[in-house]
Design brief:
By secondary structure, this protein is an all-alpha fold. The protein has helices at residues 2-18, 27-34, 36-48, 53-70, 75-85, 102-109, 120-130, 134-140. The longest helix is centred in the middle third of the chain and has 18 residues, at 53-70.
């Protein structure tokens, strides 16, 4: 597991370096290497949920930063859970089997400005709150922040 985390950090550092040179890769491409399910949902959101491609790029870059900055060890779980919400309005999120509803979650996050998951602004409001919850540490095993 430590080897995987070290490889992930090395990849993220390499990806960040690419942004400064002529051979720039897109943020969606960088995210796809570490969070393919989330990337797929961002692409679906561009095609089917009216998410502007530029906003999806910004969101992808931010998610790469979240994974890197928190040094998330269980990236697979983070990818699965994030793919569940990314690029969606609250009413499009299926919480069945999780003991919660989209209405309750929306009410919980509304005071923080999380009105949907279709903008960088909302993601930047969501993750600082979410990262303080006990499950975040338990499931994702972050070593940073």
């Amino acid at each position: 597991m430590r080897v995987l985390a070290a490889l992930l950090c090395a990849y993220l550092n390499f990806s960040s370096m690419l942004y400064g040179v002529g051979g720039k890769i897109s943020a969606l491409e960088a995210l796809e290497k570490i969070a393919p399910k989330t990337t797929q949902q961002l692409r679906i959101s561009i095609q089917s949920r009216n998410l502007p491609a530029e906003e999806a790029e910004k969101m992808a870059a931010y998610l790469v930063e979240v994974i890197r900055d928190f040094q998330i060890q269980n990236v697979g779980a983070f990818d699965l859970n994030t793919s569940h919400i990314i690029g969606r309005e609250w009413h499009e999120i299926d919480y069945s089997g999780e003991g919660m509803t989209w209405q309750a979650q929306q009410k919980k996050y509304k005071p923080y400005g999380v009105v949907h998951f279709k903008s960088l602004k909302c993601l930047k409001s969501f993750f600082p709150v979410e990262s303080k919850l006990p499950y975040f540490k338990k499931i994702y095993k972050p070593k940073g922040k």
